[in-house]
Here is the input.
Amino acid sequence: GDSVTQMEGPVTLSEEAFLTINCTYTATGYPSLFWYVQYPGEGLQLLLKATKADDKGSNKGFEATYRKETTSFHLEKGSVQVSDSAVYFCALSITGGGNKLTFGTGTQLKVEL
Amino acid sequence: GAVVSQHPSRVICKSGTSVKIECRSLDFQATTMFWYRQFPKQSLMLMATSNEGSKATYEQGVEKDKFLINHASLTLSTLTVTSAHPEDSSFYICSARDGRQGRLSGNTIYFGEGSWLTVV
Here is the structure.
């Protein structure tokens, strides 16, 4: 079946540090890949997405590249801020799968001054 | 932008009682809503897909008689946990698909804030 594996947290970084959150997937079909973010007390929000191999999704300084050869979609940001503290979820959806999302476990990021 | 609201955000109930969680789309009509649950340190697991005006489609292993889903209008879906037990304690989160948009592109799905259920 389809699955998403992402690195366990919490990840604690100092402000302006470089961030990488690893995400790998297995899929029976041809997936679209997503990163969602959940800020404290709020719902999940789509952060970025990629729908085909070698696509790069980007938003708010975050980037992730769809790597079919390594079945990965790692999230990166060059310089994190305290306001980036949140839980980040990697997810996939199979084309034609009826909008169903398969999530990773989530990675909590804490950014300190 | 589109907002999905869940209520209550936290609920504590006694074992054996039933509890209802509401999921509302506030500024769009949601033809399809999804219910997920998440155990600590585990993934969000899809429980069921709720389509307005029809029966929900449950994922394998989810008891439909225990987790009653009603999607009676285009802006409201409810999840009722019947005869709740401590093992039902979990984080439940809904999402809604904006029916005005086209095929899946990822950004048509909006999530609620989630509801923490504790059964004592």
Q: What stands out?
A: Residues 2 and 27 of chain B are 6 Å apart (CA to CA). Confidence is low (pLDDT under 50) at residues 103-107 of chain B. The first strand of chain B starts at residue 4 and ends at 7. The interface with chain A takes residues 4, 6, 32, 34, 36, 38, 41-46, 49, 93, 95, 97, 104-114 of chain B (CB under 8 Å).
